[in-house]
Amino acid sequence: MAVKKACEMFPKSLIEDVHKWGCMKQTGVSLRYMMEFGSKPTERNLLISAQFLHKELPIRVARRAIELQTLPYGLSDKPAVLKVRDWYLESFRDMRAFPEIKDSADEKDFTQMIKAVKVRHNNVVPMMALGVNQLKKGMNSGTLDEIHQFLDRFYLSRIGIRMLIGQHVELHNPNPPLHTVGYIHTKMSPMEVARNASEDARSICFREYGSAPEINIYGDPSFTFPYVPTHLHLMMYELVKNSLRAVQERFVDSDRVAPPIRIIVADGIEDVTIKVSDEGGGIPRSGLPKIFTYLYSTARNPLEEEMDLGTADVPVTMAGYGYGLPISRLYARYFGGDLQIISMEGYGTDAYLHLSRLGDSQEPLP
Fold first, then answer.
1. What are phi and psi of 193, to 5 degrees?
2. Which residue ranges does the record assign to the Histidine kinase domain (predicted)?
3. At a CB cut-off of 8 Å and minimum separation 6, what does 153 contact?
4. Residue 255 belongs to some domain of the structure
5. What pLDDT digit, counting tens, does each position of 296-339 carry?
6. Which has fewest Cβ within 10 Å: 32, 201, 334, 354?
7. Residue 364 falls within a domain, yes or no?
8. How far apart are CA 295 and CA 326, in angstroms?
C-alpha cells in the first residue's frame, strides 16, 4: 500500500496551521482547579470552559499530529500509525473550523463537536500498539527506547486531552450522581473502587482459567478523597489482573490452595497509597526494567491474531498487549502520583500505587 503523506490528504494551509499551533504554549490545569471551577456549572462557567478548550485543545492535538509525522525507524509510515495521524489532523481541522464561542448556543454546539472528537479517538491506544507491533518484529530492544519515550509523551497527552473533553461534557449532565463534579468524585472511596475493579478482574480470570484466587482488601471503608474513579478503576484492574494471572499460573498444577491477593489502602497526609500484593512467583530482577516498556508482555499477544485496521477492537484477555503497566503509571502521574513495582523472585510481587491526595499538582504537559 502506498504511503499517503499528510500533504496529499489534507490542504497545505491546514498542515501549516498545525505547525503554527504546535509551537504555542500549552496550559495545564490541576485536579483541584477542575473540581472547584466545575462545582458551579453555570452558563457563564461553561462558556469560559468552552472558550479555554477552543484555544487549548488544538495546541495539544497539533503537537501530537506533528510528532506522529516525524517518528524514527519508519514508524510514521506504518498503516496503523497513519490512521492515528489522520484522526489527529481531522480533529484539529474540526476544532479550528469552529467559530469563536460567544454564547450558550455556540457552547452547546462546541460541546457536541468535542464529544465527537473524543469518540473518534477511542481506539488510539490499540491502533498505535498495532503500528508499534508491526515495527517491533524487525527491531532490537535498544531501538525501542526512543519509541518508548515517544509513546509515554503521546499517551500522557492523550490522557489530558480526554480528561479535559470528558470533564467539560460531563458538566452538562442534568442529573449528576451525588458528590460528582464532571469526571471527579469529591468523596471517592478507594476501597469501593478497589473492590469493583477486583471483581471485574476476577470475572475475567474465571472466564479464562475456570477459577480465580481470593482477594482480601484492607483499609478504612469510610475513608474518601477527591479523585477520578474511572482512572483508579483502570489502574487497579490492571494491577489485580496481573496478580491474578501470576498466582493462577503458578498454582495451576499445585495441590496447595492458591494464596489470596492482598490489597491494602493507606491514607497518608500527602498520598493515598494502595498496595497490591501477590505470591505469584515474582519477576526476575533482570526483567524488572522491562515491565514499564511498551509491548513487554510475557503472554501471547492478542493484537497479532484478533485485530485489523478496520475495527481496532481489542479482545479482553487476562494478558494484554503489554501496555497495561506503562499506561497505568501515566494515569497515576497525570495527577501527581506514581506507580512502583517491587518483586521477590521465587515469592511474589508488590505494586505500590501512589495517588496525590492534595490534587494541586499541574498536569504534566509533554
1. -65, -40
2. 229-359
3. 67, 366
4. yes
5. 654 555 555 445 555 445 445 555 557 889 999 999 999 999 99
6. 32
7. no
8. 10
